[in-house]
Write a structure and sequence with these properties.
single chain, 96 residues, alpha/beta, Rossmann fold, four-stranded parallel β-sheet, 3 helices, 28% helix
Length: 96
């Protein structure tokens, strides 16, 4: 089974725009139906978009994010999220 690219984008406040992140994810040909979005602080543990994204990931999929801090603002949080994706390859952020 060939893996899919699954995208995740997050802004911390309603006043912030997702445009740059969404454009970057679409630029690498990620289907809109496989891009998950949250508008919530990275320190909040409840992020429905991230939960849905993690549930969608299979072992052959690649999680694509604009920057690593989009997974969470606390240093430890992104690492825990990546471990939860067990077996899914994690691609480097698009801006590096």
């Amino acid at each position: 089974m060939e893996g899919r690219q699954i995208g995740y984008a997050r802004v911390s406040t309603d006043g912030q725009k997702l445009n740059l992140q969404l454009d970057a994810l679409k630029h690498v040909s990620i289907s809109e139906k496989l891009i998950f979005i949250d508008k919530a602080s990275g320190s909040k543990s409840e992020r429905p978009g991230l939960t849905a994204c993690m549930n969608e990931l299979k072992s052959c999929d690649t999680l694509v994010i604009w920057r690593l801090d989009r997974l969470g603002s606390v240093t430890e949080t992104p690492h825990r999220k990546c471990r939860r994706a067990e077996g899914a390859a994690n691609q480097l952020p698009l801006d590096q």
